[in-house]
Design goal:
CATH architecture of the largest domain: 3-Layer(aba) Sandwich
Number of domains: 2
Strand content: 15-25%
Number of helices: 20
Strand order of the largest sheet: 3-2-1-4-5-6-7
Distance between the termini: 6 Å
CATH class of the largest domain: Alpha Beta
Number of strands: 13
CATH superfamily of the largest domain: Glycogen Phosphorylase B
Structural class: alpha/beta
Helix content: 40-55%
Length: 404
């Protein structure tokens, strides 16, 4: 079988939620198929990783021009085109895809996220069977953000929810099957696209990569790991720092809050300026050393439609996690034992303090009570081959059944 895998970011290095899932999908597909990767790249650093991408038979990258796309996206706000698609425009994408199809005709196209599904529905791929890994339903996230916002932002988010939802319905109905990460996302998608064929392929964890090398620490360090220019992360961390953290510090003056992740915004950087107990680390080569030096992890997101690999990683690193109800609802039952849930600032602070009062050994035991072994990527993706082969077999003109 020959698969053309379309991604909106290069799936290497696997250092953020979307890249992590795409990386392990690529690894799994390479077991039973020859995979050509077509990826958008957004900066020189990402483009430089092209030669290091494993598992793919070949890798084609096309550069996204951010400033150009922002201008064009603003000009198209009066149309029905989702802003997501405008921001992922890439000059040369059509020509590159045409060359790929002519040189190595795919038996199946796998599009990662709704932002890449439009390529699967356009020439030269629109006559090929395709599978959409929607991961989560993006339009639901924008609708939630609209409800939480005001003024121009509310209008833009509401428009994006409306236009992207209309596209997601078309894409899900055109796809041989659409993949989502959990039952919540499946139900959300079926409200948008009744009758679509939807399968759940959950998120996993590379458990061994996060297993702590030594005993737990006793220092009262609270940590958040995530991409910090992603608005739900920024909003959640600012809420925690302003509404929850002062309550924690009142009871534990020795506590520290460490924020780890690429792209910290001005609002995030200001948190450390105003409070010496808060540290903004920014991008790091690996998050594991920071997790291993911490006592408690938090996931204070109030918009949490998508990947919550940050929770899995913290649990695997031996940290219990305090999460909001929105995050809790998207987690598999196997992870719940290692988490406490709270929404109100006082309740969230109480949950953090409860864990800080525990001994380091008790905290690690709580994290270990999560059944993470069943969340390994090899287990979570075990159905993928059957799903993709069945999708390809519906179009015998393109199905070879071979690994060449």
């Amino acid at each position: 079988m020959r698969i053309l895998f379309l991604t909106h970011r290069l799936p290497y290095a696997p250092n953020r939620g979307d890249r992590i899932r795409a990386y392990y999908l690529l690894r799994e597909m390479s077991r039973f198929a020859a995979v050509s990767l077509f990826s958008l790249v957004h900066d020189d650093e990402e483009a430089a990783q092209r030669e290091h991408v494993p598992f793919a038979r070949d890798v084609t990258c096309v550069r996204v021009r951010r400033v150009r796309n922002l201008v064009r996206g603003a000009a198209r706000l009066a149309t029905r085109r989702p802003l997501t698609h405008s921001l992922l425009d890439a000059p040369g994408a059509h020509a590159a895809l045409t060359r790929l199809v002519e040189s190595t005709p795919p038996d199946l196209v796998v599009a990662f996220c709704s932002g890449m599904a439009r390529f699967a529905l356009e020439s030269p791929l629109n006559d090929r069977p395709f599978v959409l890994d929607m991961v989560d339903v993006d339009s639901a996230k924008w609708a939630h953000l609209a409800r939480m916002s005001r003024g121009l932002y509310r209008w833009v988010y509401r428009r994006e929810a409306r236009t992207l939802s209309a596209f997601e319905a078309i894409a899900a109905k055109r796809a041989e099957v659409t993949l989502v990460i959990n039952e919540r996302e499946r139900n959300t998608l079926l409200q948008i696209a009744p009758g679509a064929r939807v399968s759940i392929v959950p998120v996993g964890i590379d458990f061994d990569a996060f297993t702590p090398p030594g005993p737990p620490v006793s220092s009262p360090t609270v940590i958040f790991c995530g991409v910090m220019d992603y608005y739900p992360n920024e909003q959640g961390v600012c809420w925690f720092a302003k509404q929850v953290w002062p309550r924690v510090r009142a009871a534990r003056p020795d506590a520290r809050f460490v924020i780890v992740g690429s792209g910290p915004t001005r609002a995030i950087r200001k948190l450390a300026v105003r409070d010496a107990s808060i540290e903004v680390v920014g991008r790091v080569p690996a998050v594991q050393p920071y997790l291993w030096k911490s006592a408690v992890s938090v996931a204070p997101l109030h918009v949490a439609q998508g990947l919550q690999t940050k929770v899995f990683e913290a649990l695997a690193a031996g940290l219990p996690v305090v999460v909001t109800a929105a995050v809790w609802a998207g987690l598999p039952p196997e992870a719940h034992q290692g988490c406490l849930t709270a929404n109100d600032p006082n309740d969230f602070a109480d949950a953090v303090l409860k864990l800080l009062r525990c001994s380091a050994e008790e905290r690690r035991r709580q994290a270990a009570s999560a059944s993470l072994d069943r969340l390994r990527w090899s287990e979570r993706l075990r159905r993928l081959e059957g799903i993709l082969r069945e999708a390809s077999a519906r179009h015998p003109r393109y199905s070879t059944g071979s690994n060449s």
